[in-house]
Amino acid sequence: MNLLSIGASYRTADVAVLERLAIAEPAVPGLLQRLVAQPYVGEAVVVSTCNRVEVYAAVSGFHGGLGDICNVLSEHSGIPASELAGHLYVHYGEAAVRHSFRVSSGLDSMVVGEAQILGQLRDAYHAATEVDSAGRLLHELMQQALRVGKRAHAETGIDRAGQSVVTAALDVAAEHLGGNLAGRSALVIGAGAMGALSVATLTRAGVGPLRITNRSYDRADRLAEAYGAVAVPYDELDRSLAEVDIVITATASTEPVLTRDRLAEALAVKDLIVLDLAVPRDVAPDAAGLPGLTVVDIDSLAAGRRSHPAAAETLAVEQIVATEVDNFLGWLRGAEIAPTVAALRTRAEEVVSAEMRKLIARRPEFTEEQRADVSRTLHRVVQQLLHSPTVRVRQLAAEPGGDQYAALLRELFDLDVPLATSANAVPEIGGKP
User: Fold this and answer.
1) C-alpha atoms less than 13 angstroms from C-alpha of 181 in its C-beta half-sphere
2) Shortest CA distance to 1 belongs to which of 54, 64, 45?
């Protein structure tokens, strides 16, 4: 099995494509089960956020795994595989490890250094664990990716440029409002993870009064209580729209929440800035161009509104990622040789057992105690002979190029060992880098 990462993000696809690819939380378990049911896919984790949809998989073959995953994503999104391929990036082996660590550390985020991706990766990993679609390889990858992300934020200033996409969107809103958000009224639609992050960010920016609405009023009320905001029943959304300066909408709705008619009614009272951070989008496409309406969405942020930390901080995180990738590959190479070492020890035990049977046949007068003594002696001799070589070969296997030692052992001792996981990188095929 080998690591394969396939996905689309704000770098390779616009919101129209991302919202078709987006996987609602209730649909994740079913998609994971479809993935691991494919012939070449043994393990799978799916990450779906406002600006990326990615599949991390353990596959038995590159081309087969690529085809299997693309077909599942095509079926889910309704986008023909031939069209979808133009929006996908593909990372295999070592490149997949590096990509996952760059994602977890915020280097691949729209707002470089944002920490929200760590929670999203954790949720994706937990979802895979719940349906048992993550095996040994992805368990290790996800655990290490989360650790690398935490390390990057703890040891560098990568997150100083901005905490999230919310921060970047509010920067754009501030430009439209003269540079200062303090004292501006706002409404947050949605009380999920992105909604909660929006409320926290607005509060820090001094925005107020602040209102929160959600289809589940209790959830909105709990969030409002935590931040000193006001919960608004969802059926009062239209009235609230006409009374605020800024709207952040981040729901999980599959249909637009802010229709053209709803927005037009609010705009009859005052101008409105809407920060649409949802995928699929919450603002209906036909609302574009309404007089007095400013919409900031993922596409406009991706077009050049991202925040960049100092080059020194980015370089520091890149160095952490490079070191951690080497460490992971060392672990992987060590794990690769384990089945070969186990097979070698099994072969030695088989030889000892065969020789013991021959000895017993030749010397039937041996008592059980004598047979046991001879057997223990033979086993000790074999274990002592194998100890140093097997310890050393594990050490060598953990170094770059260490995969050759497992192959050499298999060849020398004619061992039949199933192909182990390998992290050797191969050129990316198809999609975009």
Assistant:
1) 23
2) 64
Q: Per the confidence metrics, is the pTM higher than 0.90? A: no
**Catalytic option among 31, 32, 50, 145:** 50
Give the residue with greater pLDDT, 333 vs 420. 333
Nearest of 392, 421, 404, 406 to residue 328 by alpha carbon:
421
Which of 48-52, 265-269, 349-353 has maximum average pLDDT?
Answer: 265-269
Q: Taking the CB of residue 411, how many other CB atoms lie within 10 A of it?
A: 9
- The CA distance from 268 to 247, in Å, is 16
Indicate if the pLDDT at residue 433 is higher than 90. no
Q: Kindly calculate the radius of gyration of the chain based on its CA atoms and give it in whole angstroms.
A: 28
| 149-202 confidence digits (pLDDT tens) | 999 999 988 876 445 678 888 888 888 888 888 889 999 999 887 888 889 889
Those residues with Cβ within 8 angstroms of residue 416's Cβ, 6 or more apart along the chain or in another chain: 343
Residue for token pair 């009064």? 209
What is d(CA 47, CA 69) in angstroms, rounded to the nearest whole number? 14
Annotation marks residue 70 as catalytic: no
The DSSP string of 79-108 is --HHHHGGG-EEEETHHHHHHHHHHHTTTT
Give one word for 237, left, alpha or beta, with left for phi > 0 and alpha for psi -120 to 50: alpha
pLDDT tops 50 at residue 210:
yes
Any idea which of 111-120, 292-301, 341-350, 401-410 has the lowest mean pLDDT?
401-410
Q: Where are the beta strands (DSSP E) in 140-292?
A: 186-189, 210-213, 230-232, 246-249, 272-276
Q: Which of 21, 292, 15, 315 is nearest to 165 (CA)?
A: 15
Q: Do β-strands 186-189 and 246-249 pair in parallel, antiparallel, or remain unpaired? A: parallel
102: amino acid identity, one letter: R
Spatial neighbors of 92 by CB under 8 A, at least 6 apart, are: 2, 3, 4, 5, 62, 425, 426, 428
Q: Strand 293-297 to strand 230-232: parallel, antiparallel, or no bridges (unpaired)?
A: unpaired
Beta bridge partners of 57: 4, 44
**Predicted local distance difference test score (pLDDT) of residue 398:** 66
The reported pLDDT for the residue numbered 432 is: 32
Which residue stretches of 1-61 are H helix?
15-21, 28-36
**Beta strand ranges found along 94-218 (DSSP E):** 186-189, 210-213
